[in-house]
Amino acid sequence: MLEEDYTFLQTLFAPPEPEQTRAPVQPEPTAPASVAHAHAQAQPQEPPAESTLRPPKSRPDMKIRVVKKDTAPPKPITLEVTTEKEKRALLKKEQADKVKEKNAELVAKGIEPASLLTKESLKKWIEDEVLTYAQIARDHVGLPADQIASLAKGYGFQSPIVKRRAMLFANK
Description:
The chain has 172 residues and is mostly helical. 53% of the residues lie in helices and 0% in strands. The radius of gyration is 47 Å and the shape is elongated.
């Protein structure tokens, strides 16, 4: 069975053979009987009308088999699932990094970050621009938000968020 399949596939996928043309043979003049024989040999023989590639013949006893390659199972896709605690921790870490960057930037310029916490600047940031202590720490001063909150409380300023929170606790 395998041998039959092999020969069939070999004939099917074999490269086409180039047509060979014979050069005309010059007959040697000998006897008159041989002249007729030589004339017959001199004409090139026509190849058969069939082309060398013919479509495969389907035989009822032949089965077509498809062999699939063994492939590795696809790797499972893992989605990064984060909980609220992880999100908050990541956010705090990013904010702390921004505060450190701002602090390093100010120190590199030769500015003492604590000198930026004047009464006028805190009033401008907290009351006029309505920024939180964390925003002031990240964007302007580069110091911890707790330090800014304690200094603002000393000057008598409260963030709008702190005011709302105090009102909520008072109503309970």
